[in-house]
């Protein structure tokens, strides 16, 4: 298949480029790791104050959840919107629109190769945290089989979501501010500060109605074996729906955006 | 010791670690680095008197900037001594720093995004300049440099020439008594260069400040300095008048002959022909026999000589010849 | 009076930088909106945790809110002055424009530390202080005057500690030109300051108390306002804070010697 061959070439080139910066890339892994550890420690403190558990979570479950979350959030990272704002403002986009391949493929290749390189640094750190917090994973074979599509869907969803945000740059000069606000919403509703099951009252319901959890908490819960497989299947289905929705949205927004961009004539 | 600038046996060497190519060499370098001493300034001695404007000449890497930085207190020497206005520069005492300035043509001390006037206010506080003094000096500098509205525009909007004028004002607002200029006209167009030169000359005349400058442009030196220091490979080769430099360093003169009808016969027997076009021929002759060679040329072409002159070679050429090592260095030492 | 002169220099630096920020006013507004969102969501996170308990490792909700305030206060002060200065210092060393600082007849460490300011962060400092006040007002019993005083003392020392660390990282640039990576480590670990350092496992607590002392710089002042700090804790942070300032001043002079002793 042609696209496959193109991706192989793009990935080879991108991997070499990323490898040049591997020292920095490893350091940036710290940003992915610190926040989950911080909230893990906080929940451990809360659990200890209550005699060892919060709801269905004990200390080992929290550890399992936040470790899984770190891995998922790392693999779901997408930072395109931040660069794109600059690219549109400085007119760097035009030459890329002229190429016969859609720019999304270049970004995807860069994204994948960054994750390949940095994951090598991330895994030992996760192992260390898992041991020091005695993390518990109740993962069965079914969970693993579900996790693979769930993880892929989450990564694709977060990438598409990022691109929809980035496309606002065609109309708004400071589109990264949009990304910033959405990042803080994800902080609360994506599962970064608490497993979705522990969000009090209506917050939990809201979280399942928003897309953020499907990029973070949902795959993490599946990976640690925190949901029964039937419910897991349902959640993966919901992820697939979100992906379709954002794929359709991106197609429309991008096309309209490029039209707007060429009309302005940057 | 009364001279504003006094330098004796000043030397500075750098340790650079040698890097060889190849992976094996890189691994070895991790264990044991190999160092090499580079003597940037190799024992120089000179004095500069009150109010003098002295040019510092030499090719890239000769040690000019290193010397200037030592005199401004930015670098510690390896050995030797120097005093500027009675202070040892590298101790960087406040009383010393308030009386000198160093302007570097290729670096800017102004803040890019704000008007220079705001940067000047900062300088006023740092140098503790009283309000009335500050006003007077700024007016004077504005006047000399024709700054006008430039001070109120963000620095990034200024052209290179305009920016350099403002840099000059920023470097001089505390009325320093000793001024070091490192390539002050680098990158400027000819008009801007001329303006800066005129300014430096005027400023020196008005304030009696002592000035030491380096420049790649001989025109700067010719226009401003009666005295030059020539430095090469860290050693001082020449210290004296600009006019004497040619006599001492270039042991030849140029005889320029123009013959009628554009004739150009052979001049080889009189000296080395360096240029010849449309009857106008330039012959290089040894300085000591310049008179008799000229007479010989007139005798040989008596009827045809339309014009004849005997000139010193251009100063650039003299310097070039010294730096490219055409003459043994010991002979040019003054 | 040199102190007056230095205060005047710092004031004019700040004025210049505010003028600069005003040239990009939209950024300023966005910065403040972002600040409120960040602080708001952080308090939200604390509220969620306290749905399940009255105290975390002995910290009550008002005390935790006060700690969050200190976190934004310290972070704001670091980002207001120290971070921009250190980033700029590294650039100046690389480009050689530090020479101009060294030519000035004033303390070079002072000039470098105060020259560049990020005025948006003044808002962070104010909001941080307001959040501390909010937490303190809900405390039972309310903080005594002595608590407020030891809070001020501990805060000053904590800020001194963070300042010293950043300047020390910047000073390393005299030997190793690229030090940005160390700043990345610092920035990523700052996140850990949002909770008291005592909830973390040993290795992280040790890091946050020594190498990247953001942990104690936030925790000890918050303990002070909560009346939870003892004389020994207070004495320690005073000693460490003062010691770090002395060390940094010495280290700066060492670095400067190496800078002025080295390349052209």
What does this structure look like?
The complex is a heterotrimer of chains A (266), B (334) and C (264). Chain A is built from 11 helices and 2 strands, in the order H-H-E-E-H-H-H-H-H-H-H-H-H. Chain A has 266 residues and is mainly alpha-helical. Chain A has one domain. Chain A has a two-stranded antiparallel ribbon. In chain A, helix 2 packs across helix 6 and helix 3 packs antiparallel against helix 6. Chain A is globular. The model of chain A has no long low-confidence stretch (mean pLDDT 89). Chain B has 2 domains: 207 residues, Rossmann fold (3-Layer(aba) Sandwich), CATH 3.40.50.300; 61 residues. Chain B has a 6-stranded mixed beta sheet, with helices on both faces. In chain B, strands 11-12-10-13 form a 4-stranded antiparallel beta sheet, covered by helices on one side. A 3-stranded antiparallel beta sheet of chain B has the order 2-1-4. The longest helix of chain B is centred in the middle third of the chain and has 18 residues. The C terminus of chain B is likely disordered. Chain C is built from 11 helices and 2 strands, in the order ααββααααααααα. In chain C, strand 1 and strand 2 form a beta hairpin. In chain C, 77% of the residues lie in helices and 2% in strands. Chain C has one domain. Chain C has a two-stranded antiparallel ribbon. Chain C is mainly alpha-helical and 264 residues long. The radius of gyration of chain C is 19 Å and the shape is globular. Chains A and C meet through helix 2 and helix 8 of A and helix 2, strand 1 and helix 8 of C.
SS summary, helix count of chain B: 12
The best one-word shape of chain C is: globular
Overall tally of structural domains of chain B? 2
Beta content of chain C comes to under 5%
CATH class of the largest domain in chain B: Alpha Beta
Distance between the termini of chain C: 35 Å
User: How do the strands line up in the largest sheet of chain C?
Assistant: 1-2
Count of extended strands of chain C: 2
CATH architecture call of the largest domain in chain B: 3-Layer(aba) Sandwich
Proportion of residues in helical segments of chain C: over 70%
